Amino acid sequence: MKDAQPSAIFLQDYKAPSFIISRTELSFELFEDHALVHSQLHMQRDAGAAGPLVLDGQDLELVSVAVNDVPLTSAQYTVDAESLSIAELPDTFVLSCTTRIKPQENTALEGLYRSQKMFCTQCEAEGFRRITYYLDRPDVMSEFFTEIVADKGKYPVLLSNGNLIEQNELPDNRHQVKWHDPHKKPCYLFALVAGDLVSLDDTFTTVSGRSVVLRIFVEQKDIHKCDYAMAALKKSMKWDEEVYGREYDLDIFMIVAVDDFNMGAMENKGLNIFNSSCVLANQVSTTDDNFLSVEAIVAHEYFHNWSGNRVTCRDWFQLSLKEGFTVFRDAEFSADMNSRTVKRIEDVKVMRTNQFAEDSGPMAHPVQPPSYIEISNFYTLTVYEKGAEVVRMIHQLLGAEAFRKGSDLYFSRHDGQAVTIKEFVSAMAEVSGRDFSQFMNWYQQAGTPEVALKGEYDPSAQTYKLTVKQHCRPTPECKDKKPYLIPLAMGLLGANGALPLYLGDDLDAEKPTHRVLEVTEAEQQFLFTQVAEEPVPSLFRNFSAPVKYQYNYSLDDLQRIITLDEDGFCRWDASQQMAISVIHRVLAEMAESPAPTVDSRIIDAHSALLDEAISAVTGNTEADLHLLAYMLSLPSEGYLAELKTPIDVEGIHFARNRVKRKLAAALKEKYRTLYVKLADATTEFSVDAAAIARRYLKNLCLDALVFAADEAGVELCKAQLHHANNMTDELSALRILVHNTNPFIGDVAPYLEAFYQKWKADSLVMNKWLAVQASRPAADALASVSSLLKHPAFDKNNPNKLRAVLGTFANGNPIGFHARSGAGYEFFADQVIAVDARNPQIAARLVAPLTQWKKHDEQRQGVMRNALEKISRVEKLSKDVYEIVSKSL
Ligand code: 0A1
Ligand code: ZN
């Protein structure tokens, strides 16, 4: 470990800056082995503030520094590894600095770096300090002027934020451009791009009639993959005007695709930079999942223009102010563009499987964390997804209309400011007259509340009493939790459908069948009257709160919800609870019996769902095929692992497979009928929700047939692999063949090789090919994973490749990664150490699965711990990995 261990930064220590930077003038000279950055910062001392000016800087070579054009002598300033300090300064001055940096050697991909043949930047959260000395904090907002000078042949396109104001030819085949961004912004929203790029151009006319130029810049080879993102951008611009009254505020909006990028994308003002995997898309190379995520990410980054850029964060503890709100906004956009229920289910799966795991692990933190060592580690599912759930609850409590009044107030009151989560909630409180003090626990307490519900029906009094108890386990930052305000959306189902909900004496003439109860106490009761028959409750409709809930349903109760509930989410959830209960019984019986019982009621339930799907496809009726397909899917091994500790890795795998095989064998003729009907339909390829649903269901049927070792099914799969006209079908077929073993499949190597030969020039498709192999569920998967690292399709410096191989192996291949020998962990620790030396952010993300060691049995705990300890002993460990590993040991 390092000599001096990195220390934490605390929210309670926040102090407003002592200096402001009203104007920032930057000039970049880009060369092949370095870059020179000249800055002129127009600064003022805040009235009354004392002390030296301390600018942030990292990995910079200071070439010169001057105040009001007078160069400083070395006695007038001090430089260390993280800052430049100047003691004697007037109240108003211009600070000029020149730094030399090496973008070509920047493998951390923070600050200015090289991705393939282009230069680009990533400044959030603290990357700007790797470009020049600055007050690198979001509450310092400045007007930026940016000049870029570079070789004209290699870098014909030179971009920065705002509007292009000047362009000149220079000697030696160099050229110069000047950009000006009229909107004050923190430096984390600064961006620069230089490259040999082409663009897809379009325009958007805003609600007030202004024409905005839209440009998506890519390398020439990718120009045919931009149309989908452009359409998504235009839809997002329109949606934000209609739903939030937010209009775009510059004359040009640009997106640039780069291959080497740590995250998905970045909302730099007027110049969003995207991981190419999150923007490029077309029919033959992109799966439906990718299409939907491209649409969602384009929207997310665009929506940040208001929620994040116009109104930004005071400090990084407020990260969820922009991220939670913007994820909520993009989720609602996606729900409006596609199937609302399917989008909700997708998001809930992530919450339950991944965010709940984070919330019960060593890195658990509130949506508003009280401290951090490395802020990059806090771009988490808790800040993003749980943060969005918290905003969703506000929306639920206020209703759409009041919520909109609240967001209007928030945007108008704080436009151009850097604020805190409190300001957001206060705006919502003000327009609704509600008291949000108890609600703030959602922002300040980590951990997932657990809600236990019990129903008692009294037939003579015709009452139904619902008892609700809430509890939240201790997390590292807080042992004793205060009760949450939990919105509980619910209904009651009789044998033939929904029953009216009368609460106590309140005999609502409208006969509502849906209510949102507000649970505020540790234990609380709700009495429903005039309940004519014993009901089955439908609970947490649409996942109305991010909690774990428990109600003792029988399989017959669940079947009633599956068949009768008006809430699609609860129908799906009941199907999952039924599957979990059946799988858990198999798991319990496995030790004693070679053939544990699979309850036939799940087969009946799936049979009925398949009939519903077949008749919908035959009659072309409106049923949501995607929802039916989700109800036919068993919960993932990851989610099953989240439900019970210690995790029985092999038990879960085999019990789940046993249930899956029973279902596939019993229902294979229905799967075949459905597959054939869906495959026969000769519709044009499209990416609307209905077409996506059909492809999803079709591939689910194919998977069942091959899983049942059906010879004709395997032939259908091979045929689909050869004849598919889109990547969803092609990749599904490949995955099904590679992930299954049966005599009809035979050796899969030729299929993998043929796919490789066909797609090797397309790096994004190659990521899928790598991931299919890294997730092959087999105890010997490690051997294939280590050989993939030597394959020409792999590149150790590219985050997408690291995620495709190492990330997929650790997160999506439980049986391979957790192999009893511990070989998976050892291999992984070495990989994390190697990656950390080049790219700490990626290494810190990769290491996460190891940190869940306490949830495993004793033997695995030991080997996982050893792997973490090996990492912790590395001498030059980054702050990023240090924080995660030290908190988990
Ligand atoms: N703000 C971006 C994503 C992003 C987050 C962190 C980064 O570096 C630590 C980079 C980008 C978004 O929410 O899309
Ligand atoms: Zn974001």
UniProtKB/TrEMBL annotation:
All residue ranges annotated as the Peptidase M1 membrane alanine aminopeptidase domain in the record: 228-442
Annotated Peptidase M1 alanyl aminopeptidase Ig-like fold domain residues: 447-552
GO molecular function: alanyl aminopeptidase activity; metallopeptidase activity; zinc ion binding
Catalytic reactions on record: Release of an N-terminal amino acid, Xaa-|-Yaa- from a peptide, amide or arylamide. Xaa is preferably Ala, but may be most amino acids including Pro (slow action). When a terminal hydrophobic residue is followed by a prolyl residue, the two may be released as an intact Xaa-Pro dipeptide
Peptidase M1 alanyl aminopeptidase C-terminal domain mapped to chain residues: 556-889
EC code(s) of this entry: 3.4.11.2
Domain of life assignment: Bacteria
Protein keywords: Aminopeptidase, Hydrolase, Metal-binding, Metalloprotease, Protease, Zinc
Cofactor (UniProt): Zn(2+)
Pfam families cross-referenced by the UniProt entry: DUF3458, DUF3458_C, Peptidase_M1, Peptidase_M1_N
Residue ranges of domain Aminopeptidase N-like N-terminal in the record: 52-189
SUPFAM superfamilies listed in its UniProt record: Leukotriene A4 hydrolase N-terminal domain (SSF63737), Metalloproteases ('zincins'), catalytic domain (SSF55486)
InterPro entries: Aminopeptidase_N-like_N, Aminopeptidase_N-like_N_sf, PepN_Ig-like_sf, Peptidase_M1, Peptidase_M1_dom, Peptidase_M1_pepN, Peptidase_M1_pepN_C, Peptidase_M1_pepN_C_sf
GO BP annotations listed: proteolysis
Similarity annotation: Belongs to the peptidase M1 family.
Function: Aminopeptidase N is involved in the degradation of intracellular peptides generated by protein breakdown during normal growth as well as in response to nutrient starvation.
Name of protein: Aminopeptidase N
Organism of provenance: Teredinibacter turnerae (strain ATCC 39867 / T7901)
